[in-house]
Amino acid sequence: MSKERGASGAGASHDSRGGAVERYDVVVIGAGQAGLSVGYHLSRLGLRFVILDAERRVGDVWRKRWDSLRLFTPARYDGLDGMPFPAPPDAFPTKDEMADYLEAYAARFALPVQCGVAVDRLSRRAGRYLVEAGARELEADQVVVAMANYQRPRIPDFARAIDPRIVQLHAAEYTGPSQLRAGGVLVAGAGNSGAEIALELSRGRRAWLSGRATGHLPFRVDGRWGRLLARLVIRVVFHYLLTVETFIGRRIRPKMLHRGGPLIRVKPRDLLAAGVERVPRVVDVRDGKPVLEGGRVLDVANIVWCTGFHPGFSWINLPIFDSDGAPRHEAGVASDSPGLYFVGLHFLYSMSSSMIHGAGRDAARVAAEIAVRARVPRPAPSTQEDPPCPHPSSVKSSRWSSSR
Fold first, then answer.
1. 282 in the same domain as 165
2. Number of domains into which the chain is organized
């Protein structure tokens, strides 16, 4: 490690071209709940690290989502290690409340977040990881990619043939009904986002919701009994039962990686009562209009694509991806690139991995692995009430080492 320290606490040297190279023990890419959780645990290890994020402010990914969005989990499960969420335990925070919480969390623990830094490439050079961001080069012994699978909106190729007079938005761009033209709207994709957006839009126009049903929780999460059952599902089933360490978790994981999870808040009867018409998925375009499976053509003025995202990891120039383009890993530890980690991926360790409390648990485990490689003491036990997860090195990997 370089002994020369810059103002940010990083070592500094120059490459063969004379440009400055920033040197860290660990670089964390992404300052959402996953990246900040990793940062919290790294801050107690005495390592030199930095957290890079492309957004202007911590929490902006949440601020950019649709205006009426509320979290699908109550506040009791929305706090990160060391700082409970400042809301009644059974309240469902708004997306802006979540954004502000993340920003306050980074400030409270003085995490070294650098915003407005978009990473262009991750590779290896001379035995270390090289992170390139614009004109900057950062080198590190270890890197954490703290980003979800949801980075680049996925829209079917045939959408280009849709009549340009039809307004098309992806869920990542949708903020509210005012963005749409007068007239009917097709919401393509029947997962949680699609169901919530279709329900909202049905209040002022005719709405169709297309796609395969993903199932739903058979109770109201905000009702008296629902709150108790939600604790069972979120805390026990998603967090402990459906993991890569259990038989049922290993069986269900491949399916969960390729389809949406069950509807949490909206029920099919809610959609029916609101007049939302359920239709098959969109498969083609005819005369500029969307065609459903079975051949029905819909005459709509708007389409909101809730069709998911591409992982968006093309900037990682390392041999770590499987045939589907997903990173191979064992509970977040890259299988073919020592010192590289992932946090925030869907079903990384458990069904709750893409939820806030699950990402926090995964971050603690990855930080423990970083400590082992850096030969520093393990971090102190988490302030969460969870018992510790198995350390990655103690987990049998032969059955689930690939993310698929």
1. yes
2. 2
Same-domain status, 54 and 90: yes
Per-residue b or e along 294-306, where b marks 16 or more CB atoms closer than 10 Å to that residue's CB: eeeebebbbbbbb
Rg for the chain, CA atoms, rounded: 22
How many angstroms separate the CA atoms of 105 and 102, rounded? 5
Same domain membership, residue 82 and residue 103: yes
Strands 207-210 and 277-279: parallel
- Beta-strand ranges (E) seen in 69-182 are 113-115, 121-125, 128-133, 136-145, 152-153, 167-170
Q: What single-letter amino acid sits at 91?
A: A
Position of tokens 């991750």? Answer: 122
Compute the residue count for the chain: 404
Phi and psi at residue 291, to the nearest 5°:
-115, 130
Q: What residues form DSSP beta bridges with 113?
A: 51
HSE-CB for 59 with a 13 A CA cutoff: 15
Rounded to whole angstroms, the Cα distance separating 67 from 288 reads: 30
Last residue of a domain, one of 308, 333, 363: 308
**Distances in whole angstroms, Cα of residue 373 to Cα of each of 40, 47, 159, 348:** 18, 12, 47, 21
Which amino acid appears at position 221 of this protein? V
pLDDT of the residue at 150: 67
Residue numbers of the chain with a pLDDT score lower than 50:
1-8, 16-17, 383-404
Residue 133 has a pLDDT of: 97
Domain boundaries, position 273: 154-216+262-308
pLDDT at res. 283: 97
170 and 135 inside one domain: no
pTM exceeds 0.90, yes or no: no
User: Which H or E element spans position 382?
Assistant: none
257 is a domain residue: no
Same domain membership, residue 334 and residue 288: no
Nearest CA-CA partner of 120 in 110, 112, 130, 111: 130
User: Distance between CA 404 and CA 389 in Å, rounded?
Assistant: 21
Q: Using CA atoms, how far apart are residues 373 and 141, in angstroms rounded to an integer?
A: 9
Q: Does residue 373 lie within any of the structural domains?
A: yes
Segment holding 24, helix H or strand E: strand 20-29
- Residue 372, helix vs strand vs coil: helix
